[in-house]
Design a protein that fits this description.
The chain is an alpha/beta fold and about 400 residues long. The protein is built from 13 helices and 14 strands. Strands 1, 2, 3, 4, 11, 12, 13 and 14 form an eight-stranded mixed sheet that branches. Strands 5-6-7-8-10-9 form a six-stranded mixed sheet, with helices on one face.
Length: about 400
């Protein structure tokens, strides 16, 4: 976005320089500026510059009981900002940031982890502080603590109109397509889960996938917005390859005209690919982003990803200009504390050697994580250079922060 504005200014200045009479440039003053004014009056309109906006999306924010303990304060309250301290600069640098929050949040009942999650609402505070503005709740854990807990969760997010909550609704009237505006782009958000671990009392509280309903939703969404993004909670847990049903549903969404599909639920990363829809349209699909943070004990679940997308508008044409996957790592220390999320490029061999999962999966190494990212994502893997956003000094600042490890 900043590069676009700079290019436009340079273009205008060069154009003005070409049109200024050389006598003015050389210091020979003319009698008046009539000729110059006429030149500007007769100028053709400047070409419209392309517009851009950026999206980052992460997978499962899975707050197990030991992660809850990580955020507990001596006074009985909670502060979860530490979980995201090494990742939040990347999140907040994006124009749009999405997270799949895999838990209800009610402060009216005790906080619990797996198998019936209920996360303190202070975790929502930390997600907001990290820079997320799209929160998905259509997943199999939405009903873990009952209807009242989910309604408490919805009420919490409704306090913040700058945050778009998708995949759940507190009434049938509220179960409408969510449309957000970013830098002149309108985005329609649709969200579906394959099902729920516990009973859903009606069809609007949690959005479940249904092929016919989805077709109607995408048809309507295309009339409402420039871009249609579909969040899909699907697939088989702990499988690093997408299943046949995922591929079938992804192609169906592409044929209907979805621009982007964001997948999650398997708790491990799965491949990404471009799909060609029935009308020749291009749809980018990431089958699974894996975990954003968790306390799981399988080595593959420690590697997650951030989807990075740049949308471009050139006149009336809106498209995905760039898309790629940035590997991230969930870290915790032996003894199940010190939970943090890092970019894989910022993760170190020293941290890998201290990882608490070695008590369960002794083969985890930094090289294992690198190889897994390359194996699953291949050419779709990319990196995020914050120096381009914050300036060259940012790398040194982040390196100093990373040196202060959770074990310190």
């Amino acid at each position: 976005m900043k590069k676009t504005l700079v290019s436009a200014l340079v273009f205008i200045l060069v154009l003005v320089g070409v049109m200024l009479p050389w006598s003015d440039i050389l210091g020979e003053k003319k009698a008046d500026n009539t000729e110059l004014l006429l030149c500007f009056e007769n100028m053709p309109p400047l070409p419209e510059m392309p517009r851009y906006t950026t999206l980052l999306a992460v997978g499962d924010n899975l707050i197990h009981s030991t992660v809850i303990r990580e955020g507990r304060l001596a006074n009985g309250g909670y502060d979860f900002n530490c979980l995201y301290q090494y990742i939040s600069p990347y999140i907040s640098a994006a124009d749009i940031a999405y997270v799949n929050h895999e838990s209800p949040m009610s402060n009216n009942i005790p906080a619990t982890g797996y198998p019936k999650f209920n996360t303190p609402q202070e975790n929502g505070d930390a997600l907001r502080a990290a820079g997320f503005d799209i929160v998905n709740l259509a997943n199999n854990h939405a009903m873990d603590s009952g209807t009242d807990a989910l309604l408490d969760t919805i009420a919490y997010w409704q306090q913040f109109p700058e945050i778009a909550l998708i995949g759940v609704a507190d009434s049938e009237a509220a179960a409408q397509i969510k449309v957000t505006e970013h830098d002149g782009f309108s985005i329609a958000w649709l969200s579906y889960t394959y099902g729920s671990n516990y009973w859903i009392p009606n069809e609007w509280l949690v959005s479940k996938y249904d092929a016919d309903a989805t077709k109607a939703d995408i048809t309507a969404a295309k009339e409402l917005a420039d871009i249609v993004i579909v969040s899909m909670h699907w697939g088989t847990e702990y499988q690093t390859k997408e299943g046949a049903r995922q591929r079938e549903q992804a192609q169906y969404l592409a044929d209907l005209g979805a621009d982007l599909i964001i997948g999650h639920h398997p708790h491990v990363i799965q491949p990404a690919e471009w799909l060609t829809g029935a009308d020749g349209n291009q749809t980018y699909c990431i089958y699974s982003l894996g975990n954003f943070i968790s306390s799981q004990h399988i080595d593959e679940t420690m590697l997650g990803g951030m989807l990075s997308v740049t949308f471009e508008a050139d006149g009336e044409d809106v498209r995905i200009a760039e898309a790629g996957l940035i590997p991230i790592v969930t870290h915790y220390e032996r003894g199940l504390y010190g939970y943090r999320t890092y970019l894989l490029k910022d993760y170190t061999e020293e941290l890998a050697n201290r990882h608490g999962i070695i008590a369960y999966e002794p083969m985890l190494t930094l090289q294992f994580l690198e190889d897994l990212a390359d194996e699953v994502w291949g050419a779709e893997r990319t990196e995020y250079d914050l120096d381009e956003v914050y300036g060259a000094s940012y790398t040194d600042t982040l390196a100093a922060a990373l040196a202060l490890s959770p074990a310190a």
